[in-house]
Amino acid sequence: MFTLEELNQIKKRKQLVALAQEKDIDIQKIMRKFQYEEELRFLQAELVNLQQWIAKKKMRVAIIFEGRDAAGKGGSIKRFTEHLNPRSMRIVALSKPTEEEQGQWYFRRYIKELPNPGEIVFFDRSWYNRAVVEPVMGFCTKKQYNKFMVQVPEFEHMLYEDGVIVIKFWFSISKEEQQKRFDARIENPLKAWKFSPVDMKGQQLWSKYTLYKEQMFSKTHTTFSPWIIVKTNSKKTARLESMRYVLSKFEYTGKTRAKTRLFPDPNVILRYHRYVEQIDI
User: What GO molecular function annotation could you give as one example from this UniProt entry (predicted)?
Assistant: First the structure.
């Protein structure tokens, strides 16, 4: 790779290209990385502007990240929140319910985590655990599942009527890409903790996940709380385009002065409908 001294001496693009050729480095790969970093910086600056506007307007915003394991939910949340003010932002990633919580109304533990006025809350998985993961893995009964599927549209309609803005992302990853990411986790000692027995079953139970995912969409995709599908085989593209989607939903102060495109690529971000092309079928 390039040394810091070499980079400091570069003044023009052609110098960078020449140095890359001399070192036998893929310049296109380097340029794509630079472009990604620049786009990410511009979008994160816009998210800071959006957060300030939401705080000023006392709005309540919840952004839900759902999807199969290794789809890139956590990495995207990290980039979303990297430069936001922690005083008006939270990340919620609840562990499995306690014995006491198991005896309560299912939504109660999530209601406690909903955004306060002026706050954005990022849910790394949400109440939708009961729509896919729990029934697939046998963590809930059929009665509990059926009750949830009836109640969730009503619950989200109450949030809508009360002024809570809910954005629901489904991160869609192909079976082959998921396996690649699992393999990479196992080989990387810094990421091995992310791999669990539940992950191992994810590949084995792929078709069952697909069945419950489609049932979830058919029963919980509504006009007031739609599902937004994000194609995530390219992690970097998914991060940028999901940021653009969120920014496109608000008319915040300074939006017209943005230094980058704020509307998502329709080939990556799709509003769910029955015949929409998905990659995790």
Answer: polyphosphate kinase activity
Q: For residue range 110-130, what is the model confidence (pLDDT) as tens digits?
A: 999 999 999 999 999 999 999
Is residue 281 domain-resident?
no
Q: What is the C-alpha R_g of the chain?
A: 21
User: Domain for residue 194, yes or no?
Assistant: yes
Q: Evaluate whether residue 278 is within a structural domain.
A: no
Question: Does residue 44 carry a pLDDT above 70?
Answer: yes
Number of other residues whose CB lies within 10 A of the CB of residue 47: 21
User: Long-range pairs for 182-188 at CB < 8 Å and ≥24 separation?
Assistant: 182/69, 182/70, 185/70
On whether residue 265 sits in a domain, the answer given is yes
Q: What is the mean pLDDT of the chain?
A: 92
CB 136 within 8 A of CB 128: no
C-alpha dist (Å) from residue 213 to 74, 132, 172, 204, 237:
19, 6, 11, 16, 23
Give the model confidence (pLDDT) of 211-236 as tens digits.
999 999 999 999 999 999 999 999 99
Cα separation, 12 vs 16, in Å, equals 7
Q: Nearest-CA neighbor of 170 among 270, 95, 243, 249?
A: 270
Map residue 112 onto helix, strand or coil. Answer: coil
Angle (CA) 55 264 267, round 5°: 150
Whether the per-residue pLDDT at 13 is higher than 70: the answer is: no
The total of structural domains in the chain comes to 1
- Kindly report the CATH number assigned to the domain that includes residue 135: 3.40.50.300
3-state helix, strand, coil in the chain (%, to 5): 55, 10, 35
- Domain with 80, as residue range(s), is 4-271
Tell me the pTM: 0.90
